[in-house]
TrEMBL record, chain A:
<comment type="similarity">
    <text>Belongs to the ABC transporter superfamily.</text>
</comment>
<keyword id="KW-0067">ATP-binding</keyword>
<dbReference type="Pfam" id="PF00005">
    <property type="entry name" value="ABC_tran"/>
</dbReference>
<dbReference type="GO" id="GO:0005524">
    <property type="term" value="F:ATP binding"/>
</dbReference>
<keyword id="KW-0029">Amino-acid transport</keyword>
<dbReference type="InterPro" id="IPR017871">
    <property type="entry name" value="ABC_transporter-like_CS"/>
</dbReference>
<protein>
    <submittedName>
        <fullName>ABC transporter ATP-binding protein</fullName>
    </submittedName>
</protein>
<dbReference type="InterPro" id="IPR052156">
    <property type="entry name" value="BCAA_Transport_ATP-bd_LivF"/>
</dbReference>
<dbReference type="InterPro" id="IPR003593">
    <property type="entry name" value="AAA+_ATPase"/>
</dbReference>
TrEMBL record, chain B:
<comment type="similarity">
    <text>Belongs to the binding-protein-dependent transport system permease family. LivHM subfamily.</text>
</comment>
<feature type="transmembrane region" description="Helical">
    <location>
        <begin position="262"/>
        <end position="279"/>
    </location>
</feature>
<dbReference type="GO" id="GO:0005886">
    <property type="term" value="C:plasma membrane"/>
</dbReference>
<keyword id="KW-1003">Cell membrane</keyword>
<keyword id="KW-0812">Transmembrane</keyword>
<keyword id="KW-1133">Transmembrane helix</keyword>
<keyword id="KW-0029">Amino-acid transport</keyword>
<feature type="transmembrane region" description="Helical">
    <location>
        <begin position="91"/>
        <end position="111"/>
    </location>
</feature>
<dbReference type="InterPro" id="IPR052157">
    <property type="entry name" value="BCAA_transport_permease"/>
</dbReference>
Length: 234, 289
């Protein structure tokens, strides 16, 4: 593997007294797509939230291009090129679709993504640019949420369950955008409950269970049985 | 007939002052859902700062805004960043208690520093000059200035919120502070800026108040009440609604006072209650909440 874009070593995370992550080691190379799978409550979202700085972490436990970024405030992390598509989309409801996208652009990073470029990737967003996000369909909302993160011109895009609650055809449309994003050299982390979807798109897969990594490898290396054992713990 | 027009006109102009009292409160509530009980006392604090500046330098009250606005802006930033931010995300009670405490502290500090004597700022002949509109109808230049300023301030805040990058960030952080942090919007800094902005507006309201009437350290809570009523009548979080609320309150008070001077405040409260009964969410509630 090339030098890591992002790596975590023994990453732990807490909600008050409750420990949600128990020493996570993950490494992501530039331009790589990895998937994190795991059952409900395994700690997938917690991991992403620690990486983007909204959860406290020891500085040295998360390294971006070699520098310790654990616990750095989120505005500095997004400025370094790590952008989040949060679980549940969380578009800003009193902003129009285009204003939501501009919030991403306001981070001020240079790169390939502009409004024009994004509207070529998701033409339907151009049609609905003035609409309130709540008036969009679920799939369109997810496109806007991905778009908002892309507008920060990230080198690492963290996607938390983008397919949640969407129909299979809509999920297929969303994942169809992935190659264009990868073509810009962007590394991607997809968190998925749908194991097949994850195995299809990822270069490597990590399986989380109860705050620990129980399995990792390329989709080719891993057998169904191994994954089932790592996923359900049986 | 002219008397009726005069009453409504004077009331509407008075409403401009109430809208200025209320604009900061409305902004703060709209952006961070914080009900600032000390808002009225901060108005009075700004009035005393203006008094000190006027006495120390000999400049006029309106000119003193060049000092009072930046000072209150700084106080707002530090107050929010250093104290009030700590009370957010902990339910509705902590911000209420802390700003209530702040209200008492400000009143007592002002009492210590300036005694309970009532004060007033003098703006010279301009205070009483008026513009003749008809045979028996005239409006004072000073109330007119207050009203025009209120419209300009609210138009300015509205433009800031809906036409600028800072305004976009304010609205995003108001919708979802955590999600906003994912995109580099630092909520602590933005909340502090919002309070700074609110207190800059408070300074303008304070100087107008201090020229218009006597003030002393204890008049803050009554200004808070007017501001509250204007905000609620207009609909929470709507700035133009706040202007409408101020005008309705001013007109009601003016009409009440015309009938019997003792009814001035009562008429304002009755108008407030009537709106609350007929339109519980105010006249122009924000569509999304
Ligand atoms: N805000 C919170 N406060 C306290 N505990 C939390 C909080 N968020 C998550 N947890 C707990 O942390 C653990 C990991 O949760 P997390 O949301 O990271 O799981 P997940 O893998 O993303 O699950 P899902 O697939 O349901 O999204 C769970 O036990 C959960 O109950
Ligand atoms: Mg999750």
């Amino acid at each position: 593997m090339r030098a890591a874009l992002l790596e975590t070593h023994g990453l732990e995370a807490f909600y008050g007294d409750f420990q949600a992550l128990f020493g996570i080691d993950v490494a992501i190379a530039p331009g790589e797509t990895i998937a994190i799978i795991g059952a409900n409550g395994a700690g997938k979202s917690t991991f992403l939230r620690a990486v983007c700085g909204v959860l406290a972490a020891e500085p040295g436990r998360i390294r971006h291009r070699g520098s310790a970024i654990g616990g750095m405030p989120p505005d500095r992390i997004v400025a370094r090129g790590i952008a989040m598509v949060p679980e549940g989309r969380r578009l800003f409801s009193s902003l129009s679709v285009e204003e939501n996208l501009r919030i991403g652009a306001d981070v001020g990073r240079q790169g390939p993504w502009s409004l024009e470029r994004l509207y070529r990737l998701f033409p339907v967003l151009a049609e609905r640019r003035r609409a309130a996000p709540t008036s969009l369909s679920g799939g369109q909302q997810q496109m806007a949420a991905i778009g908002r993160a892309l507008m920060t011109n990230p080198e690492l895009l963290l996607c938390d369950e983008v397919s949640l609650g969407l129909a299979p055809v809509v999920i297929r449309d969303l994942y169809a955008a992935l190659p264009a994003i990868r073509a810009e050299g962007t590394a991607i982390v997809v968190v998925e409950q749908d194991i097949n979807q994850a195995l299809q798109v990822a270069d490597r897969v990590y399986c989380f269970m109860e705050g620990r990594v129980t399995l990792s490898g390329t989709p080719k290396e891993l057998s169904r049985e191994q994954i089932r054992a790592a996923y359900f713990g049986m | 007939m002219t008397a009726a027009i005069d009453t409504v006109l004077q009331g509407a102009l008075l409403g401009g002052l109430y809208a200025l009292f209320a604009a900061g409160l409305s902004l703060i509530f709209g952006i961070m859902r914080l009900v600032n009980i000390a808002h009225g006392d901060l108005i009075v604090l700004a009035a005393y700062i203006a008094l000190v500046v006027v006495q120390a330098t000999g400049i006029g009250p309106i000119e003193s805004l060049a000092v009072v606005v930046p000072v209150m802006f700084a106080i707002g930033y530090v107050l929010q960043r250093g104290l009030l931010n700590l009370t957010l995300d902990r339910g509705i009670l902590p911000p209420l208690l802390v700003t209530f405490g702040l209200s008492i502290i400000i009143q007592n500090v002002l009492l210590e520093g300036f005694s309970a004597d009532s004060r007033k700022l003098q703006a010279g002949a301009f205070e009483t000059a008026s513009l003749r509109l008809g045979a028996d109808l005239a409006v004072g230049w000073f109330p007119l200035l207050i009203f025009v300023t209120a419209v300009a301030v609210i138009a300015g805040l509205q433009a800031l919120l809906y036409r600028t990058r800072l305004g976009r960030a304010f609205r995003a952080v108001s919708d979802d502070p955590e999600a906003a942090r994912f995109y580099g919007v630092d909520n602590r800094h933005l909340f502090a800026l919002a309070m700074a902005l609110a207190l800059a507006v408070v300074s303008i309201a304070a100087v107008f108040l201090a020229v218009r009437t006597n003030f002393d350290p204890a008049v803050g809570p009554a200004r808070l009440l007017f501001a509250f009523e204007a905000v609620i009548i207009g609909g929470l979080g709507s700035l133009w609604g706040t202007l409408a609320g101020g005008i309705i309150l001013g007109v009601a008070q003016s009409v009440g006072a015309r009938i019997d001077p003792a009814w001035q405040l009562l008429a304002g409260h009755v108008a407030f209650l009537l709106v609350l009964v007929m339109r519980p969410r105010g006249l122009f509630p924000r569509a999304v909440d």
